Amino acid sequence: MSNSHLRLRPKAKTGLVHDVTPASAGWTYVGFALHKLAAGQVTGGEAGDRELCLVLVSGKARISVDGVDFGEIGERMSPFEGAPWAVYVPKSSEWAVDATTALELAVCAAPGGGDYKAKVIPPGTHPRLTRGKGANIRHVHNIMPEDDNSAHSLLVVEVITPQGNTSSYPPHKHDQDNLPHESQLEETYFHRLNPPQGFAFQRVYTDDRSLDEALAIEDGDVTLVPRGYHPVATTAGYDLYYLNVMAGPKRVWKFHNAPEHEWLLK
To answer: Model confidence over 190-244: pLDDT tens digits?
Structure first.
């Protein structure tokens, strides 16, 4: 497998598996970390000037923010088994997670601000959406969408793409601060595959091809999308899950489709 600065392989099998910061990614807004814990293990930290969304990708945990115990949350033991549980952590807060089962915990981060309160985001907070048609169908669970007024800058969503289908497609981008036409958002993709030995493909490219990378995606990889279009395709026999974190100068998701592929929407 070729190396790419846009595709990050897990750096460990347990503990802190991914740790993307604005400095390590070479951008300004988005951070992403992933912890794999056994039952009884703990993690936590301080949000500082960032706001966080703790997403239970799989497993159960007891979570507290600034000493307020939200109790044990979580129910699915695989990201392919239903909707997520999550917790919003505002800036300047301390958070702690005590795994009560094997746990895969995503820590999504972006600049904090405003007077937002810590809260649990249970399954069903936002309805599941199905987008696309034919071989472009995918199923969407919004966790922190732009229309819920729940955060200063974080946008968080997870998507299931059935085997053999495309997603984030037709190709779209959101790299220009040009509202109302397009918003500027950095983005990470955290990928899981079912069964896990499968693979998928993602292309990240710009109109002028100054950025143009085709990435082979395996279970547990993270893709960085600093700019450009970023479609995904999974292969026959393997469903694809991905967790997206987006943030930019404004908390608005307004994308621009690649015009040569917009005919696919008709």
So the answer is: 999 999 999 999 999 999 999 999 999 999 999 999 999 999 999 999 999 999 9
pLDDT attached to residue 1: 43
CA-to-CA separations, 253 to 77, 175, 187, 209, 249, in angstroms, rounded: 30, 10, 11, 23, 11
Spans of the chain below 70 pLDDT? 1-3
DSSP symbols for 82-127: SPPEEEEE-TT-EEEEEESSSEEEEEEEEE--SS---EEE-TTSS-
Alpha carbon distance 82, 253 (integer Å):
24
3-state SS, residue 29: coil
Residue 4: predicted pLDDT: 85
Helix, strand, or coil (residue 146): helix
**166 φ/ψ angles, rounded to the nearest 5 degrees:** -100, 165
CATH architecture of 7-265: Sandwich (2.60)
Structure tokens at 45: 């930290």
* Per-residue pLDDT, 3: 67
Model confidence, pTM: 0.97
Instruction: Give me the pLDDT at residue 150, please.
Output: 87
Torsion angle (degrees, nearest 10) of CA 138, 142, 145, 148? 140
Provide the residue type at 118 as one letter.
Answer: A
> Among residues 168, 161, 155, 178, which one has the least CA distance to residue 239?
161
Nearest Cα to Cα of residue 30 among 225, 241, 252: 225
CA atoms of 199 and 107, how far apart (whole Å):
24
Q: What is the DSSP letter of 263?
A: G
Q: How many CA atoms lie within 13 A of 154 on its CB side?
A: 33
